[in-house]
Design goal:
Layout lengths: L28 H15 L2 E6 L4 H14 L4 E6 L3 H14 L6 H12 L3 E6 L12 H6 L7 E6 L3 E4 L15 E6 L6 H10 L3 E5 L5 H5 L4 E7 L3 H9 L3 E3 L6 E3 L12 H4 L18
Parallel strand pairs: 1-2, 6-7
Antiparallel strand pairs: 3-4, 3-8, 4-5, 6-8, 9-10
């Protein structure tokens, strides 16, 4: 992980923690290389997950470290999810890391699992929001005092103005838990409206990640993420997708792209149907 506040508490005693890959202003290059080398020696492979909102210098550091070590055992996964969604995804990958999956399957499963995380936020303003499409009309409404907006960043972007006749946010059609991180916004909308509408099975509080305000364009927010909590369901999802071998680096993978070298499958293999959300007509996930 690239930030300590994205490391959520483990779900059980078996779920391992995550290592922190620090920013250039917090750690010298030689120390970063040493830490990565040590992790490779101890664990064999490293899967580094980071948000699209990460500082460019930090992203360059990750690639530089991998380049210096000349290692094909380091996967750099850039994830287009809000900070709390990234934290949820990382914990799910931590859960899968103790299963009988190869490192390549665990890395490439990040794209699969991202489709099952409903990540969003309640905002007091969308004037600085650039991660989700915002119409001029909605921008104008954002200037009205007391306005609040419910925004879904993924799996399908959606933005609605909160009110008595508001359009509901499209939620999951399978059993989930809801993680909630409160910023400076005071509201019970997530607990009283969103959670019942999404029929979540449980709610958990979390600390708002430091990057959330920058990602959403305001500090007056409540971030949330609905996710599959059961390791057996996650295992079933990943197991249901056909496994391939990367023609470039030889790693095992699921989906259409290698998690370690980012090489896509050859076109002929891409046309082979398999079960899983990365293919058209895929089934919905089983209910937990």
């Amino acid at each position: 992980m690239t930030s300590a506040d994205l490391v959520l508490p483990p779900t059980d005693q078996q779920t391992p923690t995550a290592a922190l890959l620090q920013a250039p202003d917090a750690q010298a290059m030689d120390l970063a290389i040493g830490d990565m080398h040590l992790m490779l020696e101890q664990h064999g492979y490293v899967i580094a997950v980071y948000s699209t909102g990460i500082a460019l210098a930090h992203e360059r550091r990750l690639h530089a470290v991998r380049s210096v070590l000349e290692s094909d055992r380091i996967a750099l996964l850039k994830v287009d999810l809000p900070p709390l969604g990234v934290a949820v995804l990382v914990r799910q990958l931590r859960q899968l890391s103790i299963c009988d999956f190869s490192p390549g399957v665990v890395a490439s499963s990040a794209r699969l699992l991202s489709h099952y995380i409903h990540a969003g936020a309640l905002l007091n303003s969308v004037t600085k929001l650039d991660r989700v499409p915002v119409s001029l009309k909605t921008h104008a409404k954002s200037w009205v005092p007391g306005s609040q907006f419910a925004v879904l960043a993924g799996p399908n972007p959606q933005l609605v103005k909160v009110g008595p006749n508001a359009e509901p946010l499209a939620g999951p059609d399978f059993g989930t838990h809801l993680l909630v991180a409160k910023g400076q916004l005071q509201s019970e909308w997530v607990q009283q409206t969103l959670a019942p509408a999404w029929k979540v099975q449980a709610m958990q509080d979390a600390t708002l990640p430091a990057d959330s305000s920058r990602w959403w364009g305001t500090g007056k927010l409540i971030e949330f993420a609905a996710f599959l909590p059961d390791i057996s369901v996650l295992y079933q999802l990943v197991s249901s997708v056909r496994r391939e071998t990367c023609h470039w680096c030889g790693m095992e993978l699921i989906g259409d792209r290698c998690g370690f070298c980012s090489s896509p499958l050859p076109a002929t293999e891409n046309r082979i149907p398999s079960s899983g959300v990365l293919n058209h007509g895929a089934p919905a996930p089983p209910r937990s």
